[in-house]
Amino acid sequence: EVQLVESGGGLVQAGGSLRLSCAASGFTFDNYAIGWFRQAPGKEREGVSCISSSDGSTYYADSVKGRFTISSDNAKNTVYLQMNSLKFEDTAVYYCRLSQYWGQGIQVTVSS
Question: Please, are residues 56 and 47 in contact by the beta-carbon 8 Å criterion?
Answer without folding.
Answer: no
